[in-house]
Design goal:
This is Methionyl-tRNA formyltransferase. Keywords: Protein biosynthesis, Transferase. Pfam families: Formyl_trans_C, Formyl_trans_N. Its EC number is 2.1.2.9. The protein has 308 residues and is α/β, with parallel strands linked by helices. The chain folds into 2 domains: 195 residues, Formyl transferase, N-terminal domain (Rossmann fold, 3-Layer(aba) Sandwich), CATH 3.40.50.170; 94 residues, Methionyl-tRNA Fmet Formyltransferase, Chain A, domain 2, CATH 3.10.25. The chain is built from 8 helices and 15 strands. The strands form 3 sheets. Strands 5-2-1-6-7-8-9 form a 7-stranded mixed beta sheet. Strands 10, 11, 12, 13, 14 and 15 form a 6-stranded antiparallel beta sheet that branches. Helix 1 runs parallel beside helix 6 and helix 5 packs antiparallel against helix 7. The chain is elongated, with a radius of gyration of 22 Å.
């Protein structure tokens, strides 16, 4: 089958590898344009680099919502389009091109968590179960008929990175199973229940700011959800301090939320609405990652200090 794969970040890599490994498919790839990274160096998308290693033709149109983008897809003559974390909404003109339609791997149990940040939102909300869905793509975001779904347990210390990795691996298997069902004409089309819809909007900058008035569990969930590039943060002395990993401390005395309760061998312990949070890994503004203990060696924090 002639398959056109569309994807961009590392989450999409296992699916592309699985599809390319099946030699009965002719695979071409579309990914986002190369962007300028740190130090003005060009930073190609992970999927472009992977496609090149797999000797697959790869294209990087500025947008598929243009005549040029639509013509590119039409000329590739795909029988099926597979989308995994591509980052662009496909226009109707492209959706109508492949004989077998367009399918998408989404990291939630649709119709729950439609949108850009389902992995992070599931962790922020303290969910214990999430999942993956392969569904047909239509003109409305993440609302197409479902082909397959699989539940995935969220472990107590899962982070946004670790959960994304497990979902991407399981998702690749679900994508391959869906392709086989489509080829055989046996793919189901389960309509999504619109009464059960919830949304997972993109994480905004202000969502990452820690509010010590919240519970220790809520703050811990926020930290682990955003532990990768963005990270949660607090402002100290006018500078940002990222918090990358932390640990809940159930009992830490009666202190106003945001108070430095103790300077431990693992890092500073900060009071919250109902307990405390031990800061294990941090990153001061403009500096490298470091342990909470290393941070304390170079910064004059004291017990009773109030954080914003």
């Amino acid at each position: 089958m002639n398959i056109l794969f569309m994807g961009n970040p590392p989450f999409a890599a296992p699916s592309l590898q699985s599809i390319a490994r099946d030699k009965q498919h002719k695979v071409s790839v579309i990914t986002q344009p190369t962007k300028q990274g740190r130090g003005y160096h060009l930073s190609p998308p992970v999927i472009k680099l992977l496609a090149q290693r797999l000797n697959l033709p790869v294209y990087q149109p500025f947008s598929l919502n243009t005549e040029e983008g639509i013509t590119l897809v039409r000329n590739l003559q795909p029988k099926l389009i597979v989308v995994v974390a591509f980052g662009q909404i496909l226009p109707d003109e492209i959706l109508s091109i492949p004989t077998f339609g367009c399918i998408n791997l989404h990291p939630s149990l649709l119709p729950k968590y439609r949108g850009a940040a389902p992995i992070q939102r599931s962790l922020i909300n303290g969910d214990t179960v999430t999942g993956i869905t392969v569904a047909y793509i239509n003109s409305k975001l993440d609302s197409g008929d479902i082909i397959l779904q699989k539940e995935i347990k969220i472990e107590p210390y899962d982070t946004g990175d670790s959960l994304a990795d497990r979902l991407s691996q399981s998702g690749a298997m679900l994508v391959m199973e869906s392709i086989e069902l489509i080829k055989a004409g046996n793919a189901t089309r389960i309509h999504q229940d619109e009464t059960q819809v919830s949304h997972a909007p993109k994480i905004r900058h202000e969502d990452s700011l820690i509010d010590w008035q919240r519970s220790a569990r809520d703050i811990f969930n926020l930290v682990r959800a955003l532990n990768s590039a963005s990270g949660t943060y607090i402002m100290v002395g006018g500078e940002r301090l990222k918090i990358l990993t932390a640990e809940i401390v159930e009992e830490c005395g009666s202190f106003e939320p945001g108070t430095v309760v103790e300077l431990t061998k693992d890092g500073p312990l900060i009071s919250t609405h109902d307990g405390g949070l031990l800061l294990l890994t941090v990153q001061p503004q403009g500096k490298r990652l470091m342990s909470g203990y290393q941070f304390l060696q170079g910064h004059r924090w004291s017990v009773g200090m109030k954080l914003g």
